[in-house]
């Protein structure tokens, strides 16, 4: 009986990676290269998007703080006592009497009288 002859494993790998095999599979290698480039580009795009999201979150938080500050200042300035103090130099005061409401029909009559007087 004859014993099977084992090929040297290094020579098997070298015989597979010869010039003809590489030329036959060049399209496959190009496809793998394109996939690798797309994978890297996708990672960079994702990092860029995450950075934009984080900066937008920081801006929103800053604007929320500014809004709350301005709202508190407006509430403080719109109190009746503060308005009265602010208008005192101009001679404006709170009316002592209740204001009267003029019905809509009388408004038209008053406008007509004013226009006639001119």
Description:
By secondary structure, the protein is mostly helical. It has one domain (9-93). 75% of the residues lie in helices and 0% in strands. It is built from 5 helices and no strands. The chain is rod-shaped, with a radius of gyration of 43 Å.
Give the helix tally. Answer: 5
Q: Which percent band covers the strand fraction?
A: under 5%
Shape label:
rod-shaped
Radius of gyration: 43 Å
Overall mean pLDDT: 84
Instruction: Outline the biggest β-sheet.
Output: none
Could you give the topology of this structure?
Layout: H1 9-16, H2 19-24, H3 26-77, H4 80-87, H5 104-117
Features:
5 helices, mainly alpha, 0% strand
Q: Would you kindly provide a brief summary of this structure?
A:
With 118 residues, the chain is an all-alpha fold.
């Amino acid at each position: 009986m004859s014993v099977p002859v084992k090929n040297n494993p290094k020579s098997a790998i070298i015989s597979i990676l010869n010039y003809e095999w590489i030329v036959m599979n060049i399209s496959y290698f190009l496809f793998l290269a394109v996939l690798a480039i797309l994978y890297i580009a996708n990672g960079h795009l994702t990092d860029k998007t995450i950075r934009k999201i984080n900066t937008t979150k920081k801006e929103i938080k800053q604007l929320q703080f500014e809004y709350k500050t301005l709202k508190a200042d407006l509430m403080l300035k719109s109190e009746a006592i503060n308005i009265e103090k602010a208008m005192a130099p101009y001679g404006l005061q709170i009316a002592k009497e209740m204001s009267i409401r003029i019905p809509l029909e009388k408004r038209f009559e008053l406008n007509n009288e004013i226009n006639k007087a001119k």
